[in-house]
């Protein structure tokens, strides 16, 4: 079988050394078989192994091959749709549980980095940058909302203050979250994979799950092997394809693109982002950026509905970067890549159980670095029989894309056009 390699990203080029991992050959028995070695799968595996379960992971390509090894590296707390939307769609008890968890993912990441000594360039501090007065009002109400759930570390920034942390004319203000921050995402995934193995878990690479036999004793089949397990956790997110048809109807893979500059001079890097915080703006189709440990600017933005790979990523993203930082006009782009995240109509994650023993979490629609770490912990709690927090997610309502799978792309492209227009008009 042909091996699938990492895309040519800055992250793959600067990845920490990794061991060779086996393909699955023959039959294995375990307590939990996890499909997918991104943050959802790895985080679930660590939480389960720490509580004494036997765990095997099958990964279609390599650890962190999907969004977890390609993302902007931004530790952004809360969900892609915020607690006000959750409060409107669920009861107060469930909203309270979800609101209390909104900042937990960032803490889990930091705990794992410290406990397993993961070298992934962790930096504290994330900025939500307001492009318009309307965005600023939104941030003010979001701060109040988060404070109601005990998340009180946030600082609103006026136009003068944000200039002290981002050297750009693009913003009228913002909000600083020191519990946000950034990491080298692929090295976080690789470090978590090493943690899984240090706890006795096994990861099979180049081993796609091609079929899951459901029932009292589920079996996960790969081209050359099978795993019999008491439980299965499906963590393939936007790369899962149609392995579980019930899951694909209510979600859609979308591509988003990232570029990385050549290393900047120390002075230029320091002038752009003096405190080395990461930044995301408040547009619906948002831009996000940060410095790397070797002082490149990583800049992401744009969405391609239906996850087709655009031909010239630099041509799409570079103008966005220059809009925020015209001073980078002569800077060369060394890397450009695309990756897929999974969108749901509500932009809230899809979590649940198929039958008694197949669990899933997917579709966090963007802010997935923290959510996936929380999801792993919550899925592990459910497998241990403590399902209160799992149920809070599982009860979130989800709807199929109007018109079904075939119409998902045009429908959402229309939505994207509408939101781009709204972003441009600042309404
Ligand atoms: C370009 C980009 C930038 C982003 N930037 C940010 C950011 O800055 N901050 C943020 O919070 N979020 C960001 N996100 C979102 C975030 O990266 C994702 O939400 C998160 O990484 C999803 O993790 P996951 O483990 O669920 O899925 P993935 O990381 O996609 O992992 C799924 C894994 O499952 C494997 N798989 C799929 N099907 C099978 C199968 N049948 N058998 C075996 N294995 C299978 C895949 O190969 C893959 O490795 C970004 C996403 C992208 C694409």
Instruction: Write down how many β-strands occur, each being a DSSP E stretch of 2 or more residues.
Output: 17
Termini separation:
51 Å
* CATH architectural arrangement of one domain: 3-Layer(bba) Sandwich
Largest sheet: 9 strands, mixed
Radius of gyration of CA atoms, rounded to a whole number? 21 Å
Instruction: Calculate the mean pLDDT score and round it.
Output: 92
Bound small molecules, by name, code or SMILES, are: flavin-adenine dinucleotide
| Rough outline | globular
Binned strand content: 15-25%
| CATH class wording of one domain | Alpha Beta
Low-confidence stretches: none
* Helical/strand content category: alpha/beta
Number of helices: 14
CATH superfamily of one domain: FAD/NAD(P)-binding domain
Percent helix: 25-40%
By CATH, the topology of one domain is FAD/NAD(P)-binding domain
InterPro entries: FAD-dep_OxRdtase (IPR006076), FAD/NAD-bd_sf (IPR036188)
Keywords: Oxidoreductase
Pfam families: DAO
GO molecular function, one term: oxidoreductase activity
